[in-house]
Amino acid sequence: MSGEGLTESTPALAGRRTALLVLGLVLVALNLRPSLAGFGPLLGQIQAELGVSAATVSLLTTIPLLCWGLLAPLAPLLTRWRSSETVVLLSTGLIGVGALLRVGPTLGWILPGTVLVGAGIALNNVLLPSLVRRDFPRQVGLMTGVYTLAVVGGAAMASGLAVPLRRAFGGEWRASLGVWAGLALLGMLAWLPVLFGRQTRGGWGAPAGTSVWRNPYAPPVTLFMGFQALVFFTWLTWLPRVLQDRGLSPEASGLLLALGNLVQLPFSLGVPVLAARLRGARPLVVAISGLIAAGLLGLLLLPAAPPLPWVLLLGMGSGSTFPLALVFIALRASNPAQVPRLSALAQGVGYLLAASGPFLFGALHDRTAAWTTPLWFLVGCTGLVLLAGLWATRAEPSTRR
Questions:
Q1: Where residue 176 sits, what CATH number does that domain have?
Q2: I want to staple 358 with a disulfide (CB 3.0 to 4.6 A). Which of 58, 140, 142, 371 is the partner?
Q3: Is the whole model's pTM more than 0.90, yes or no?
Q4: What range defines the domain where residue 298 resides?
Q5: Of 89, 115, 118, 93, whose CA–CA distance to 104 is shortest?
Q6: Domain assignment present for 328
Q7: Helix axes 250-262, 264-277, angle to 10 degrees
Q8: What is the pLDDT of residue 26?
Q9: Which of 144, 153, 124 is nearest to 28 (CA)?
Q10: Is the pLDDT of residue 223 over 60?
Q11: What mean pLDDT comes out for the span 278-306?
Q12: CA 289/CA 177 separation, integer angstroms
């Protein structure tokens, strides 16, 4: 009787643990973009109140991206000290503390808060996709889709609520950004059960022969991650300002940005599943690069036309490139132990590359006093997304393990 009861309870217990892991994964992933996505619709007011140039104010987006690049290599090292689950919990706490500091009255508070937010996101950027590959080896595509759906959903929520939250707090943009500290606390509470019954110390060792530097797919995967992130975070930062200079209100531009993020949701879920099943992802790379290019060219060549179609095209394209980059990381690693190292390399170098995007876009606008040259710059970078993606899909072996 007792043996039979144990047999019946074990699958139920495993199911509950899996459900808690998925819930924790989703709520932590929701924290990875709001501090940046909620910034774009408020950019004009922030720049005016701080009295700085467009290039300078873009540092509030550039600094987190720099942190993502510089600190990503620390994630595999920290997992030797504490378990990945423990590091994820602590990193989510950093995001919350940083969000609170960004409520401060001066740049002396805002900049350190921005660094802490960037540091927490940098570590979780690497570790969460690695946990997906480790804990869901047979559902990599589906669970990558769930993860990216949560990431993109957080961005959509923040961009859509930025202006309404500012209005609710009496026109104070700092409070609109600081409210996301509560989401970080919720993510920590949801992640705590994941730690129960698991080791707290590190041990994700690398077996011999798993050096990421010997992986021939490491360079193209890294470049694809970098250029797609450069394009996305640049338009995420500057699109509301571009639209406002063309006559839209802050509320309307924030709504369009939210729609550009919302339209990413089905692509964030569907593209990883499709990419994991396709024998070759080259047609997918061409199609999604074309969507981004079409959106940018629409903004460039038809400035008087309603911007909604172009924003939706940008969202559909970027909603596909990010999850595809994560699939490349998961499937191009030689084995599960190499995933955090390939992830750290791709995101470390990739986000350092991406960090230049918002700054260069703002600097080009400062120099030309127009948006034409900056938008052509993004078109060129989209071409590099295409080339890197084609390189990453060359001579594909059977990667569905």
A1: 1.20.1250.20
A2: 58
A3: no
A4: 19-193+216-392
A5: 115
A6: yes
A7: 20
A8: 94
A9: 124
A10: yes
A11: 91
A12: 31
- Amino acid identity, position 91: S
CA 178 to chain CA centroid, Å, is 19
Amino acid at 163: V
* pLDDT above 70 as % of the chain: 91
Evaluate if residue 52 carries a pLDDT over 80.
no
Query: What backbone phi and psi angles, to 5 degrees, belong to 199?
Result: -65, 150
- CA–CA separation, 92 vs 13, rounded Å? 26
Q: Does some domain include residue 201? A: no
Where does 169-217 have alpha helices with state H?
Answer: 173-178, 181-195
The DSSP letter of residue 183 is H
CA distance 120 to 127: 11
Q: Can you name the residues that pair with 82 across neighbouring β-strands?
A: 201
Distance of alpha carbon 327 from alpha carbon 365, whole angstroms: 34
Q: What are phi and psi of 380, to 5 degrees?
A: -60, -40
Q: Does residue 310 belong to any structural domain of this protein?
A: yes
- And the tokens for 34? 């709001």
The rounded distance, in Å, linking the Cα atoms of 323 and 266 is: 11
Q: Which amino acid belongs to residue 341?
A: R
Yes or no: say if 305 and 182 are a contact pair by the CB < 8 Å rule.
no
Residues 6+ positions from 275 with CB-CB distance below 8 Å: 141, 281, 284, 323, 324, 327
Let me know: does 95 contact 56? Beta carbons within 8 Å: no
Residue 226 has pLDDT above 50, yes or no: yes
Q: Provide the pLDDT for residue 4.
A: 39
Confirm whether 248 is domain-assigned: yes
CA distance 166 to 99: 15
* 3-state secondary structure at position 201: strand
Higher pLDDT, 91 or 331: 91
Counted domains in the chain: 1
Tokens 């990413």, residue located:
264
